[in-house]
Specification:
288 residues, alpha+beta
Length: 288
């Protein structure tokens, strides 16, 4: 009986001596000198790791350019996007219900505010069309900030919102703006031929879409807006747009529309992304 009581007491005493042994002055089995050497080792070890990490980051930052990516891993053809894009690239509204399309109008007004002619004239150059606006650096002297060419809002004609404040939405002739995503250094055409936008309906909706009008003329992204040099190097750059106006689309039915860029250097679609150089959206105009 007494032996069974002494065993837990002995175990408790052993654990207390392991935590702190007053005879050898050891804490958790180690003397103060041993603990100090261990802590010093880990301090030096982690300081070395931190220093090596900081050094490699410093070397990597030396290879980076503030104005142009050192490496560009991108698709050969950039993507496209529309404005207004609605929910899930769907433009659905009722002509009679102004609230159903007022949001689209406000979205376009906000988006096009930087394209106002007065704003463009103050900040950007009037460039000769159909040729690249090349701005080379002079050796190690950076030609920054680089200038940009004017894209005036009035170039969008009936889709500029200047004449028709509703962008055609009140007349069942809506305008959709198309832009090509920015890619630094991209040259989207050759031999003076600018890329242009071509839109069409899916096969089952081919008779529903009706005729289209493109602005600027022929729906081109003029070469003078390229190459793009980056947001930091070309601070006033406003990318070119193409407006598509649906003149007589069928009412009260869904129309699946696909727009793509046509170029002698860019291919629509790729193995990596079938939507490269194209954008698909759904249009539905309800009469009531």
């Amino acid at each position: 009986m007494s032996g069974s009581k002494e065993e837990p007491r002995r175990a408790s005493g052993d654990w207390c001596r392991f935590f702190w042994d007053p005879r050898t002055h050891e804490l958790l089995g180690r003397t103060a000198t041993s603990w100090g050497l261990i802590l010093l080792f880990y301090l030096i070890f982690y300081l070395f790791l931190a220093g090596m990490f900081a050094f490699t980051m410093y070397i990597m930052l030396l290879t980076l350019d503030d104005y142009k990516p050192t490496w560009q891993d991108r698709l050969a053809t950039p993507g496209m996007m529309i404005r207004p894009k609605g929910d899930q690239l769907e433009i659905r509204y009722s002509v009679a219900d102004t609230e159903s399309w007022d949001g689209f109008v406000q979205n376009l007004n906000t988006f096009l505010s930087v394209y106002n002619d007065s704003y463009q004239v103050q900040l950007n150059d009037d460039c000769p069309p159909d040729q690249y606006f090349i701005q080379e650096d002079s050796g190690e002297v950076r030609n920054n900030p680089k200038r940009s060419c004017q894209f005036n809002r009035t170039m969008l004609g009936d889709c500029s919102g200047m004449v028709d404040r509703s962008y055609g939405y009140s007349k069942a002739q809506p305008c959709v703006l198309i832009k090509l995503n920015r890619v630094i250094g991209m040259l989207p055409g050759k031999d003076g031929q600018s890329p242009y936008v071509s839109c069409g309906a899916k096969k089952e909706d081919s008779e529903k879409m009706g005729p289209l009008a493109y602005f600027p003329v022929n729906g081109t992204f003029n070469l003078m807006y390229y190459p793009y040099y980056g947001k930091k190097a070309q601070v006033n750059y406003t990318q070119p747009l193409v407006a598509v106006k649906f003149l007589n689309a069928s009412l009260n039915t869904d129309i699946s529309v696909e727009c793509k860029v046509v170029s002698n250097t860019l291919l629509a679609g790729s193995e990596r992304d079938k939507f490269a150089g194209r954008v698909s959206f759904k249009l539905r105009i309800n009469e009531q």
